[in-house]
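2024-03-11 09:14:02 INFO worker-7 job=invfold-0412 stage=load source=structure_tokens
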């Protein structure tokens, strides 16, 4: 019999995976690009400033994780966020960020590693 602690741990593990998926700047920029409407890879490349291969690799990851979906129309493949709650999460994160940006900016635990 699975106990409540095991169920809670499993939920937390899945939640951590979701946030790891969102923690990559390239994947996040792709999701931001798709926030309001579906787009082709080429449109995402132009908006995000990332290379075609980089965007394609991250789109594949987002597809595998169930965060985006695609549909073919002629020669074009259009990508969109699969669940509008993901768009809402991005919107809410903007509001949270505006409230806690100073603290995050000063947080030594989450600083990026700089290479010289």
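2024-03-11 09:14:09 INFO worker-7 stage=emit residues=116
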């Amino acid at each position: 019999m699975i106990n409540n602690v095991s169920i809670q741990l499993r939920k937390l593990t899945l939640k951590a995976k979701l946030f790891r998926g969102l923690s990559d700047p390239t994947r996040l920029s792709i999701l931001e690009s798709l926030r309001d409407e579906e787009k082709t890879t080429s449109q995402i490349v132009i908006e995000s400033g990332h290379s075609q291969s980089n965007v394609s690799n991250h789109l594949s990851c987002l597809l595998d994780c169930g965060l985006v979906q695609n549909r073919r129309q002629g020669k074009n493949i259009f990508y969109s966020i699969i669940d509008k709650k993901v768009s809402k999460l991005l919107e809410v994160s903007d509001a949270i960020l505006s409230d806690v940006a100073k603290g995050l900016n000063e947080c030594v635990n989450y600083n990026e590693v700089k290479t010289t």
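2024-03-11 09:14:09 INFO worker-7 stage=report msg="The mean pLDDT is 90."
2024-03-11 09:14:10 INFO worker-7 job finished
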